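Workshop exercise sheet. Pairs work together: one partner reads the sequence aloud, the other fills in the structure field after running the prediction. Swap roles for the next sheet.
Pair: D.N. / O.F.
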Amino acid sequence: MTNSSSSLTPEGRLLSLDFFRGFTMFLLIGEFTGLFSNLTDPALGGTFIHSLGEQFHHVKWQGLHFWDLVQPFFMFIVGVAMPFSFAKRTARGDSYNLLFRHALQRSFLLLLLGWALYCIGPGKITFRFQNVLAQLSVTYIIAFLLIRKKVSVQLIVSFGLLILAEVIYRSFPVEGFNHPFIPNENFGTWLDLQYGGENLGGHWVSFNAIPTTAHTIWGVLAGKLLMSDKPAAKKLKTLIIAGLAGVIIGYALNPVTPIIKRIATSSFVIVSGGWSLLVLAFSYWLIDIKKSRNWVIFFAVVGMNPLFIYLFAHLNGSDFIRHIIYPFGMALFGRTGELPASIIMNSIIWFLLWYICYWMYKQKIFIKI
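Structure field:
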């Protein structure tokens, strides 16, 4: 087996991390094309395609679909990348105080961007933490503050946050909001009503940023493991054992604490953290150990500009592309039927979003904060 140094490119990049981040971002931008909705069209009811399409939509309340894992993947990946960035900046002479200021600035910008996404639609200033950028602004700074602490300290804090959330939800005394696992009748909804005046549709709550901080902390621990001098086989074994433990424990807790992504219950955070570790383990085994790398660039180019492509797709970039190509596309594919033509066109839009990332990669344009 190879050691840690041979897993890195000359630029100090871990290819499996580039793939995992790019694959996650590729899925996220795919949501904005409308293709996932095509797959659950009533016309496809009862088919394998429809069943597959269901996995690309969030569970309405309790349970777990594949799509419920994408945000945890992203927040976990940010954590995995943090030790690499921290070590790189430290090696070039940056002090901890300088790194801390940069972390604060980055968290603040993530928060502003997260808030801005809520303001654009209704045309009014709205302060919410439900989207991934706003929540990441919280999880990132907490994980940074722990990055130099012992593994035991980071684990204690991460599980402590889960226990704290569990206790608050179960013991919250306000009438009408003291049912921890019922939509809009829990502490998370009450908290949102205190500062926002309304609850966001879909039962998502801002307090999720606290329990899901565990995802980013666990990502930091995984990143430190992959940076270490331990043999690759031991790294892989550790990731697999930790991942399996998370998945088994998370599902086992479901009868006691339901798996609910929309309020980030402890069982959900643990099971999704376990899946995150297992996907990272698979990526590390396939790409950095087995050296299957020729195809990685397809996804990696998306992960190299994650903030740009997420904002571009979120701010109707896919609709802009749609308005340009739809008249031509429908003229070519309209005879196949409305649903098949829509699937083809939305797939083309997805490809064009990917191509924007590829073009930026070729031009060496990388937008970071």
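Discussion prompt: The two ends are 36 Å apart (CA to CA). What would you look at next?
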